[in-house]
Amino acid sequence: MALVLNEEQRFLRDAAREFLNANAPVEALRKLRDDKDPTGYSSELWHQMAELGWASIILPEEYGGLDFGFTGLGVVMEETGRTLTASPLLASAVVGASALLLAGSEKQKSSLLPKVAAGELTLALALEESHHHRPTHINTTATTEGANIVLNGRKTFVVDGHSADQLLVVARSSGEAESERGLSLLLVPRDAPGVSVQRTIMADSRNAANIVFEQVSVSSDALVGPAGEAWAVLEQVLDRGRVALAAEMLGLALEAFERTVAYLKEREQFGTLIGSFQGLQHRAAQMQAELELCRSVVLQALSTVDDAPEQLPLLASLAKAKLNELVKLVTNEAVQMHGGIGVTDELEIGFFLKRARVAMQIFGDTGFHKDRYATLCGY
Amino acid sequence: MTAPIRRDVLQDLDQFRSEARQWLETNCPESQRQPMQAEDQYYGGRNARFPSADAQLWFERMRDKGWICPEWPTEYGGGGLTPQHAKIIKEEMKAVRARTPLYSLGIWMLGPALLEFGNEEQKQQHIPAIINGEVRWCQGYSEPGSGSDLASLQCKAEDQGDHFLVNGSKIWTTAADKSDWIFCLVRTDPNAKNQEGISFLLIDMDDPGVTTTPIELISGESEFCQTFFDNVKVPKSNLVGELNQGWSVAKALLVHERKLMSELGSESPREVLVPSAAARQYLDMVDGKIADAQLRADLVDYDMTMHAIGLTHFRTFEEKLADTRSAAPLVMKYVGTEAEKTKSELLLAILGSQGLGWEGEGFSQAELDTLRLWAMSKAMTIAGGTSEIQLNVIAKNVLQLPQS
Ligand SMILES: Cc1cc2nc3c(=O)[nH]c(=O)nc-3n(C[C@H](O)[C@H](O)[C@H](O)COP(=O)(O)OP(=O)(O)OC[C@H]3O[C@@H](n4cnc5c(N)ncnc54)[C@H](O)[C@@H]3O)c2cc1C
């Protein structure tokens, strides 16, 4: 049964919730922001998360993983969405780890994945080159020069790019601009000569970076998968990232919604609780309906990764588009239904609003995924 | 990691599925696997005639197999199967495109409530007759003055010793003019507050004093009636549950009604156009894409919503099996019927003027049906509790928001 959590998964969810509430509540994100923390997340927290096994949930046991599957990952992602916990979980343990797992050589996998699983090594995907997700529009070049490959180009909106140890760079070895063909994936240390990283402070107080590659020379061992043939794997990696992010967004939406419903039962105006006003009740009920649909979509998308990967593109786009719309609706309504206090920095709802907007852009906005879904449906 | 279903259970279900498929392939006549028109639906009843000899054969085979009501107890003619088995039968019927052999409010609404609240005598009298299609039932809840506010109903049943004397009227009674019996909510205590003085009564429509008047709808059909009760004598034994406790029976029944309505769209008997297929047939395509950006966007929104609704139906089913509960069933009537309306508007937009034909030449049957279904779709968010009432229920029961 894919759409109901089993006992182990429920146990993991409860444990995750308890841990995050105690160690990484929304206040922790506020503190990272206010302290202008140079890493953007707490390394100590990340090591604790890794000790709990979260960095290795989706990895096979042979690489130090828990092999707990995407549904298991999903419950953790959902809980980190509730607390808006900043960590390399998505960028490194999901996206980076998936890229190595699906495309890496046996040597890369056995030398790197156990470290990723232990949270000792972090990865980030350097993909985007414009302000919209266009995964084939790659102008960064990978040119063969003797035994080496030389990278030139600029990346933007690299999630966790300023803190990751290694960058997974999508570059063009051949093929026309915008073509799926000719793309390569290369592993480049963040501190390699010629790599310059500019941290970008985003709305959600989390990490991203603009990165420039100037005559960055790496050996051909740096290639993850065959040169020029990265697209098939990249698409799967992105879909996994989209689904995991959708699970985080579900948690975000649930938390913002529950906090708002609690406020409706607490705030009085006109001598009565504002939750008794039908104008607000119906809007809250409509959000509940959307949340129910989105929960089913997320659960199905997660289990599709493990059980029916051939259907993953459709499910990933369904999940990302639906969750984009959900978090937009819920966070806007959450602010509105709190009234004046809703637009203050003091109230944590604002953090949900801002994380929602960033999450909506990562790995494809609503229009991108609706277009992809329609194309996959043949219209 | 494996889900908590035992392997031997799964094997048993797999085997049941292949046996069911084989049985259906062998026993469902070819003519009963074609799309239906409204007149092909068999509702049973005292005066009913089968639409065709094949329809009769198909119904009788399913009845003898115990698959008209696979989940109901065998002592009343049901199949005595588990929900998993019943679901498999439903899925396999869909797979071979088998028609529903018997359409019946008795099956969808009254039966489950009788099995829960009826006494032994009532079950013996009514359940087999429902399964055998001998009695056609209709639902007498709404009144001219009591719709959403059902608990304010006024149709009264007075205690006359050995019988009740029923006076008043019901409205929007679907198919009252074609039905044999009606299950009614009646006021038995005029002094009690709203839902407390209401009882659940079964009334034979052949009884003297029961009359019906059909009402024409915007779809051009006259699906429902006003039903009048003028000094109708109803035996006391027709009371279901306790006196003045009819509201709890009605509430249980409403759950079945809303579940049915939330699934109706996917089970329409007619050959309804599928929006994405209609789009390819009726719209200009450029490079494999619908050229009209607005319609393409509307279509993908609809398809995504239906995809999500389908998955949520699966989820509620799995939750039932796993004995866990969520709020999902409570939102399905609202989302399902709203999506039906969206679909009808979308089809109309896709068909353009070809979707506006009312009757006669110049239009295919599917095109004419599209318009009639569009008109009917407007009723979906009204019948069985309006969308606004659904939202009230979610606000109250799921979100537990304060009531004014
Ligand atoms: C196709 C169809 C078949 C039907 N079949 C049957 C049948 O077989 N048997 C039977 O008994 N009944 C049947 N009905 C009746 C149906 O149950 C009622 O129409 C329905 O409950 C609404 O009642 P009403 O028509 O009196 O509308 P009203 O209750 O008068 O509603 C009018 C408007 O006011 C809104 N409204 C009412 N109360 C509230 C509130 N508290 N908050 C916000 N908005 C509110 C409604 O949502 C609606 O928009 C059928 C109806 C249809 C359309």
SSE order and pairing:
The complex is a heterodimer of chains A (379) and B (404).
Chain A: H1 7-23, H2 26-34, H3 43-51, H4 69-83, H5 89-103, H6 106-117, E1 123-126, E2 141-145, E3 148-159, E4 166-172, E5 183-189, E6 195-201, E7 207-219, H7 231-264, E8 268-269, E9 272-273, H8 278-307, H9 312-338, H10 349-361, H11 366-376
Parallel strand pairs in A: 1-4
Antiparallel strand pairs in A: 2-3, 3-7, 4-5, 6-7, 8-9
Chain B: H1 7-27, H2 53-65, H3 83-95, H4 105-117, H5 120-131, E1 137-140, E2 156-159, E3 163-174, E4 181-187, E5 198-204, E6 210-215, E7 224-235, E8 239-240, H6 246-264, H7 275-282, E9 285-286, E10 289-290, H8 293-321, H9 328-351, H10 365-380, H11 387-398
Helix pairs in contact in B: 1-3, 4-5, 4-6, 6-9, 7-9, 8-9, 9-10, 9-11
The complex binds flavin-adenine dinucleotide.
Textual characterization of the structure:
- The complex is a heterodimer of chains A (379) and B (404).
- With 379 residues, chain A is α+β, with helices and mostly antiparallel strands.
- Chain A has 3 domains: 7-120, Butyryl-Coa Dehydrogenase, subunit A, domain 1 (Orthogonal Bundle), CATH 1.10.540.10; 124-228, Butyryl-CoA Dehydrogenase, subunit A, domain 2; 232-376, Butyryl-CoA Dehydrogenase, subunit A, domain 3 (Up-down Bundle), CATH 1.20.140.
- Chain A is built from 11 helices and 9 strands.
- In chain A, the strands form 3 sheets. Chain A has a 4-stranded antiparallel β-sheet with strand order 2-3-7-6, with no helix packed on it. Chain A has a 3-stranded mixed β-sheet with strand order 1-4-5, covered by helices on one side.
- In chain A, helix 4 packs antiparallel against helix 8 (278-307), helix 7 packs parallel to helix 9 (312-338) and helix 9 (312-338) runs antiparallel to helix 11.
- Chain A is globular, with a radius of gyration of 21 Å.
- Chain A starts with 6 loop residues before the first helix and ends with a helix.
- By secondary structure, chain B is of the alpha+beta class.
- Chain B folds into 3 domains: 7-103, no CATH class; 137-249, Beta Barrel (Butyryl-CoA Dehydrogenase, subunit A, domain 2), CATH 2.40.110; 264-398, Butyryl-CoA Dehydrogenase, subunit A, domain 3 (Up-down Bundle).
- Helix content of chain B is 45%, strand content 14%.
- Chain B contains 11 helices and 10 strands.
- Chain B has helices at 7-27, 53-65, 83-95, 105-117, 120-131, 246-264, 275-282, 293-321, 328-351, 365-380, 387-398, and strands at 137-140, 156-159, 163-174, 181-187, 198-204, 210-215, 224-235, 239-240, 285-286, 289-290.
- In chain B, strand 2 (156-159) and strand 3 (163-174) form a beta hairpin.
- Chains A and B meet through helix 1, helix 4, strand 9, helix 8 and helix 9 of A and helix 7, strand 10, helix 8, helix 9 and helix 11 of B.
- The complex binds flavin-adenine dinucleotide.
- The site of flavin-adenine dinucleotide has 21 residues of chain B, from strand 1, strand 3 and helix 11.
- Flavin-adenine dinucleotide is lined by residues 138-142, 147-148, 170, 172-174, 224, 379, 382-386, 388-389, 392 of chain B.
